Amino acid sequence: MSFLQPAGPAIDLGINIDHVATLRNARGTRYPDPIRAALEAEEAGADAITLHLREDRRHIRDEDVKAIRPLLQTRMNLEAAVTKEMIDFACGIQPQDVCLVPEKRTEVTTEGGLDVRGHFADVQAAIVQLQQERIRVSLFIDPDVEQIQAAAESGAPVIELHTGRYADATSEREQQEELERIRIAVQAGVKLGLKVNAGHGLHYTNVQAIAAIPEIAELNIGHAVVAHAVFAGWRNAVSEMKAIMVKARLDALKAKA
C-alpha cells in the first residue's frame, strides 16, 4: 500500500511502464526514460512497478530492469516467460515479485493466461527456483476454475486474473458475463488461500467494476495510463487511476454495509 494512501480496505495499483519504453524505442532515443516513469509513478501513488522483459526486448531491456530495481521505494513486479533465460535473469535481479506469463513473439500484447495445467512441471520448477531466492511468484491466468486449482497445486501464492475478455467485450451483456466469470474466479482463488490480483486491458471507464470486487488485492495497468498521460501528464494519469480504483472499492464496501 502506498504511503500516500491511508491504511484500510483500499486496493493496490501496479503501474506497468512497458509502453514508456515502447515510445523510447520507437525512435532509438534515450527518452522518455522508464526509470523516471517508475520513480514518478511511485510518487503519484503507485504501489508497485510492473515491467515485462520480453524475449525480443521490444520495450523493456535488461539494463532497464537492472537500473530500476535498486531505486524503487515500493515493489518491482517483473513479468517473465517460463524459460530458463528469464527465470535465471529474475533470480539475479531479485525483484520482490515475479509474475509468470505466456509469451508469443508474434503477439502485440499478452493474448491470454498461462496454461498452468498444460505446462505444470515447467511452471512448478520455475516457482521452486524463484522461491528459493525468496521471490514471491504470481501466475497470470484466465479466470478459469481449473487453472486456478492448478495454480494452487503448483505452490504459487498469488494469481493475476486476465481481464482482457472483460475489457474487450463489445456489448453490455458480454461484459457482464465476463465480469461474473471474474467474480467466480476471485472467490475460487480466495477459497484456495491465494492472493488474487487482476489486470489487462483495464482503463479509466471500465476499471470501476473490477476494482469494486473486494477480494482483489491489486490491479496492474499500463497502456491506458501511458495513453492518458499524453494529455494529462504522467503523475496526473497515475494518481487519477488510483483515485478511481479506491473510490470504486470504498463505494462498494459502503453499499454492502
UniProtKB/TrEMBL annotation:
Pathway: Cofactor biosynthesis; pyridoxine 5'-phosphate biosynthesis; pyridoxine 5'-phosphate from D-erythrose 4-phosphate: step 5/5. The keyword Translocase does not apply. Keywords: Cytoplasm, Pyridoxine biosynthesis, Transferase. GO terms for molecular function: pyridoxine 5'-phosphate synthase activity. The keyword Iron does not apply. One of its GO terms (biological process) is pyridoxine biosynthetic process. It catalyses: 3-amino-2-oxopropyl phosphate + 1-deoxy-D-xylulose 5-phosphate = pyridoxine 5'-phosphate + phosphate + 2 H2O + H(+). Catalyzes the complicated ring closure reaction between the two acyclic compounds 1-deoxy-D-xylulose-5-phosphate (DXP) and 3-amino-2-oxopropyl phosphate (1-amino-acetone-3-phosphate or AAP) to form pyridoxine 5'-phosphate (PNP) and inorganic phosphate. This is Pyridoxine 5'-phosphate synthase. The gene is pdxJ.
